[in-house]
Write a structure and sequence with these properties.
Layout lengths: L1 E4 L4 H11 L6 E5 L5 E5 L7 E5 L6 H17 L4 E6 L18 H12 L3 E5 L14 E4 L2 H8 L10 E5 L5 H11 L2 E11 L2 E8 L6 E9 L3 H12 L5 E8 L5 H6 L5 E5 L13 E4 L2 H12 L10
Parallel strand pairs: 1-4, 4-5, 5-6, 6-7, 8-9, 8-11, 11-12, 12-13, 13-14
Antiparallel strand pairs: 2-3, 9-10
Helix pairs in contact: 1-8, 2-3
This protein binds ribose-5-phosphate.
Length: about 300
């Protein structure tokens, strides 16, 4: 087994290798003078079980192209099996035609990956679980929630008492319900309407949050419009402390201003996407999902069950 990475999130790949107690594979992933992606594998990989860690976060198209070209290089270097480890799967929110004359970009990305010659995909908290079916190769879809739940149940987190888990929209109910079950607390739902790509309006809060601490659970914080609006509505309904837990810190502008100016007390995010220092806020706390990804990689390599990690 060998683990390689491109430029999307080297720190996460190093942490995964630490978990697996192996060295990160030796590869150059850079640019030619004209901007085209340049890849050179600096070690023999013939017959090896290869895992390429590369979230397709911003710069999305560069990171996606690096991944495709790395896969091509491993195919041509006679690797036995290639698994794309995509902790954050970009373009996932374009997963259906929700209006006329728009693409289904998530399906196109799946087609590109399969065409490049990848054998398997390992993804975390896909925006829509159905994206697994866009691939005609095995996809292991894993969850970050053991990491978040473990932290919220630990003595490092003060707020679990009298807690209600909140889904910021109807689409997130399944994820929020899993949290509520594991944290043994109630569930409320925000009825959100998206008016544009960066603006959402809250219509109703379904459930009782008065006098309770709330944990808004979401898969992605992009412009933070959803959680900001939800937090304001929850405060108006009498919520006490408001926390946010989200897997993928996309943090597109104006996310940081919105989070800073919201009634949210603390935002827990994972490291599927690197958060540069200019996007950091004292409200943000990053939890590492490298143990879950590392364990899934170990089990795939050893032909052991991955789903049993989440029972
Ligand atoms: C929506 O369906 C997603 O689960 C997230 O709530 C959404 O993508 C977050 O976007 P933003 O932070 O821009 O509101």
């Amino acid at each position: 087994m060998e683990v390689f990475t491109g430029n999307a999130n080297r720190n996460l790949a190093e942490k995964i290798c630490d978990y697996l107690d192996i060295q990160l594979g030796n590869i150059d992933v850079g640019r030619f003078n004209d901007g085209e992606c340049m890849v050179k594998i600096n070690q023999d990989v013939r017959g090896k079980d290869i895992f390429i860690v590369q979230p397709t976060c911003a710069p999305v198209n560069d990171n996606l192209m690096e991944l495709l070209i790395m896969i091509d290089a491993f195919v041509r270097a006679s690797a036995e099996r290639i698994t794309a480890v995509i902790p954050y799967f970009g373009y996932a929110r374009q997963d259906r035609k929700d209006q006329g004359r728009v693409p289904i970009s998530a399906k196109l990305v799946a087609n590109l990956l399969v065409s490049s010659g990848v054998d398997r995909v390992l993804a975390m908290d896909l925006h829509a679980g159905q994206i697994q079916g866009f691939f005609d190769i095995p996809v292991d879809h894993i969850y970050s929630n053991p990491v978040f739940i473990g932290y919220f149940k630990s003595k490092d987190f003060d707020g679990l008492e009298n807690m209600v888990v909140v889904s910021p929209d109807v689409g997130g109910i399944k994820m929020a319900r899993a949290f509520a079950k594991k944290l043994e607390c109630g569930l409320a739902i925000v009825d959100k309407r998206r008016v544009s790509s960066d603006t959402a309006h809250v219509m109703n809060v379904i459930g009782d949050v008065k006098g309770k601490n709330v944990m808004i659970v979401d898969d992605i914080i992009a412009t933070a419009g959803s959680v900001q609006e939800a937090a304001i509505a929850l405060k108006e309904q009498g919520a006490k402390k408001i926390f946010v837990s989200a897997t993928h810190p996309v943090l597109a502008p104006p996310a940081i201003e919105r989070l800073e100016n919201s009634p949210i007390e603390k935002i827990f995010l994972s490291n599927t996407i690197p958060v540069p220092s200019d996007k950091m806020s004292s409200k943000i706390h990053i939890l590492s999902v490298s143990p879950v990804l590392g364990e899934a990689i170990r089990r795939i390599h050893n032909k052991q069950s991955v789903s049993s990690l989440f029972i």
